[in-house]
Amino acid sequence: MASISLKYKSKSGNLTAPGDVDPGAMIPLATTTLSTATATITFSSIPQNYEHLQVRGILNNSATDAALMTFNGDTGSNYSRHRLTGNGSGAGAASGVNNTSIAINGLTGFQSTTSVYGPVILDILDYVNTSKYKTIRSLSGTENNTSGGIEFNSGLWMSTNAITSITFSTVSGTWAQYSTLALYGIKRAGA
Amino acid sequence: MAYTYSKIATYTVGSGGIANVSFLNIPQTYTDLIVKASIRTVATPAQIYADTTFIINGDTGSNYSLKFLRGSGSGTGSQSTTNGTAGYLTQLTGNGATANTFGNLEMYFYNYTSGNYKSFSADGVGENNGTTAYAEITGEVWQRTDPITSFSFNATGVFAQYSTFHLYGIKAEV
C-alpha cells in the first residue's frame, strides 16, 4: 500500500491542520519521564490493536544495575535471555534460563553517574499472538567517559498470553529523575 | 518521525509451513525499507537454530557480501562472506528450540531505489530456554545497482506456522 505524503494529504496546505496528518504505522502510545527517583516503570492497559511494540528510552540507575523486564505482572520462572556484549576491550556472551525476568544491559548496568543516561531500543513482535511465546530484541548501552558497554539482547517470555503490561524494575537502586521510557505501537503491515 | 513509517505488506505462514516467502512489486516511493519478522523454522532433523537466507530481485549470482558479529549464549565470533549467492539472516529459532518460540528479526535496507550497490543490515535473535541461542548483527551489501523490487526469504526446511513477515517503508522527508 503506497503512502501518502503530508504535503499531498493536507487539505488546507497547513501541515498542522487537524485531521490532515497521516499518522503512519508507528504510533506513540505512552511516555513516562520520571520527576523523582522511582523503583519501577510500568506500561499498563496496553492497547491490543497493534502488531508490534517498541520501547525507546534513556535510563540512569542509582546502583548501576540492569533493567529487569516482566510482562503482565508475571514474576514466575518463565523467562530466558541471551546477550552479546562489548565493553571497549572485548566481546562477551551470556545466557540465563528459567529466570524471573529479562535482564536488559546486564553486563554493565545503566550508569549512576549524574547526567549520564543510557539508551535502549527494544522490539516485541506479535505481542498479541496467542500461538506464540513472546521474543524481544533490544540494543542498549552506557558510556560515562571511563566505563560503559553496549549490549544486543534477546529475551523470551514463555507464555502465549497477549502482552497487556510491561514493567521495568531493577536489581537494586532506583531509576533516576529524568529517566524516560516511551512505548510505541506499530500497525500491522498491509492492514 | 512517526508519519514517515508506513505499512506495506504482511505475510503470515499457514498450517504446514512454507519454504519461501517473497515480497513482489515493492513500491518505489520510499527512501528505505524495514522488514520485521517473527520466524521459526522446521527441519529434519530438528535444530535449535537454523540459517535463513535472502535473495533480492531473484538474483542468485555471486553478488552478496557480508560481515556479522555473533553471540551464541556462551561465546562470540565474527565472520564474513564475499561473493556469496545469497544474503544471510541470522541463526534463527528452529524446531529443536523451546516450543512456541520464534526468532525476532529486523532488516533495514538503505536507499533501496538508488543507483548504488544496496547496503542492508539484519539484527536477529533466535531465542530458546537453554544456553544456546544466537544473537547476530549483520552488515551486508548486494553488489548490484538495480532498484530493489522484490526479495525472498528461504528457510532451512520450512517456515513454521504463525511465522510472520512484515514490510514497512520509511520516507526521509515529507
What does this structure look like?
- The complex is a heterodimer of chains A (191) and B (174).
- The longest helix of chain A is centred in the N-terminal third of the chain and has 4 residues, at 6-9.
- Chain A has one domain (23-186): Sandwich (Jelly Rolls).
- By secondary structure, chain A is mostly beta strands.
- Chain A has one helix and twelve strands.
- Helices cover 2% and strands 44% of the residues of chain A.
- In chain A, the strands form two sheets. Chain A has an eight-stranded antiparallel sheet with strand order 1-12-3-8-9-10-5-6, with no helix packed on it. A four-stranded antiparallel sheet of chain A has the order 2-11-4-7, with no helix packed on it.
- Chain A is globular and about 45 Å long.
- Chain B has 174 residues and is mainly beta.
- Chain B contains no helices and twelve strands.
- Chain B has strands spanning 5-12, 18-23, 32-42, 49-56, 64-71, 76-84, 87-94, 103-109, 118-125, 135-142, 151-159, 164-170.
- In chain B, strands 1, 2, 3, 4, 5, 6, 7, 8, 9, 10, 11 and 12 form a twelve-stranded mixed sheet that branches.
- The mean pLDDT of chain B is 94.
- At the A-B interface, strand 1, strand 5, strand 6, strand 9 and strand 10 of A face strand 1, strand 3, strand 5, strand 8 and strand 9 of B.
**Shape estimate of chain A:** globular
Q: Largest beta sheet of chain B, briefly? A: 12 strands, mixed
> What is the strand arrangement across the widest sheet of chain A?
1-12-3-8-9-10-5-6
| Cα distance spanning the termini of chain A | 9 Å
Largest interface: A-B, 54 and 58 residues
Assign the structural class of chain A, choosing from mainly alpha, mainly beta, alpha/beta, alpha+beta, or little secondary structure.
mainly beta
Sheet having the most strands of chain A: 8 strands, antiparallel
CATH architecture classification of chain A: Sandwich
The helix content of chain A is under 10%
What is the 3D form of chain B?
globular
* Rounded radius of gyration of chain B (Å): 16 Å
| Strand percentage of chain A | 35-45%
